[in-house]
Amino acid sequence: MSKSVPAFLQDESDDRETDTASESSYQLSRHKKSPSSLTNLSSSSGMTSLSSVSGSVMSVYSGDFGNLEIKGNIQFAIEYVELLKELHVFVAQCKDLAAADVKKQRSDPYVKAYLLPDRGKMGKKKTLVVKKTLNPVYNEILRYKIEKQILKTQKLNLSVWHRDTFKRNSFLGEVELDLETWDWDNKQNKQLRWYPLKRKTAPVALEAENRGEMKLALQYVPEPVPGKKLPTTGEVHIWVKECLDLPLLRGSHLNSFVKCTILPDTSRKSRQKTRAVGKTTNPVFNHTMVYDGFRPEDLTEACVELTVWDHYKLTNQFLGGLRIGFGTGKSYGTAVDWMDSTSEEVALWEKMVNSPNTWIEATLPLRMLLIAKISK
């Protein structure tokens, strides 16, 4: 199966087209299924057929979190420079890191920094890679241009990674500092200090945060063309009304939009999006998306994934999402990690399936998602 990556690790390029209509549609069509392949979605034009989701959607982790032992320490210091309005993170060195190359007992480590909750490209800073060592010396300053009041609402996350010759990353450990409780006036806090590296904690921390809510309605239309002699497939209509209390990742700025995919398809052709709405944490979209080609049995195997993004310059930062389906953990007989709907999300899908031709409305809390990488 294609793997998934935490949403905040994905680099979302700015490939959004401007929406010119409030309603858009997409057709669900099928290939002959072998036991190892899932039902697929393909474009309504029929110009191309998509490869099997289970076989050839090649998605890889942005980072491998599970293979290496977490050990060792990192030495760094932080200081806020009032004159420049900058946070300076002086990364000095690491020692006793885990060996990615067990035979030669060495790694090619580098350090990556984020100011949480923002994990977009704009907030990411990195040191150079130091090759063939478990005790790398960096002596680099990572700089963030940021107002001190905003800085006091952030957390500094420093993580150490091994980068192999194929540019794949393996996680070696991390440290997180809560800058809200940091004593900026204490001169001792400006001195270099050793911190033990710890296991990955960020996804759990992000999960606990309030990501806001989405107000939406779903409708299943089993016979879009009544009275037609030939059997027709049904449609699922998704009405994204508005979002409420979205988190602010860039101070007071927000420019949000909603993206929809019907899993198991992860191709770009299956995605539909709303327009972006700026300058509010309570954006109103009133955008309807239509997906057709649904047989009754497909309703138990597919899942509506709705994700909310903050569009900034050339990047899109994940804010939160929903997965609306039966939450069975399986799709067309294959175990999948995205069939993980919460009880509220399952309840909405069940009501839609059991009440055809009727709009079923709900307001659901947005949450952290593991998102399958988009295939070409």
UniProtKB/TrEMBL annotation:
Question: Sorted alphabetically, which InterPro entries does this protein's record hold?
Answer: C2_dom, C2_domain_sf, SYTL1-5_C2B
Q: Which GO terms describe its biological process?
A: exocytosis
> Could you tell me one molecular function GO term of this UniProt entry?
neurexin family protein binding
**Stored SMART domains:** C2 (SM00239)
Region Disordered: what ranges? Answer: 1-46
Stretches of Low complexity bias are at 35-46
Give compartment(s).
Answer: Cell membrane
Report keywords, A-Z. Answer: Cell membrane, Exocytosis, Membrane, Repeat
> What superkingdom heads the lineage?
Eukaryota
Q: Does the keyword Cell membrane apply?
A: yes
GO annotations of cellular component type: exocytic vesicle; plasma membrane
Entry annotated with the keyword Methyltransferase: no
Q: Where is the C2 domain?
A: 70-195, 210-339
What name has this protein been given in UniProt? Synaptotagmin-like protein 2
